[in-house]
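User: Teach me something about this protein's shape.
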Amino acid sequence: MEYKRVARSGQVPEGIVRRFYADEYEVAVSRLDGKAYATSNYCSHLDCLLSSGKLVQDGIGCSCHGSAFDLETGEPICPPATEPIKTYPCEERDGDIYVGIDPAEPPEGPRRRKLRSTS
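Assistant: First, the predicted structure itself:
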């Protein structure tokens, strides 16, 4: 696991979701109850950008169709999504946010677009 600096802590205020990059990995970074979280930036339902959504209850909500995902596990907590999203370890150190990336895993991206291109 390699931790990559993606943002200054102040760039992700409480209740906000923002898109950042850790090399070629695109992540949605959010802050809930003072803690920073990092997930895939793509909803597993129809690939909408989660960084365009907002935090809802204990999760990250998709602005397209209302799906929501648990910030810790990535599991869907509100339909229509039924598949989880990827979550990444997230740490704050010295005023910066770091996201843990496993270089052996390919970057998470839009799933439906990948399926269409292989069909």
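Now, about its shape. The radius of gyration is 14 Å. Residues 115-119 have pLDDT under 50 and may be disordered. If you'd like, I can walk through any region in more detail.
User: That's plenty for now, thanks!
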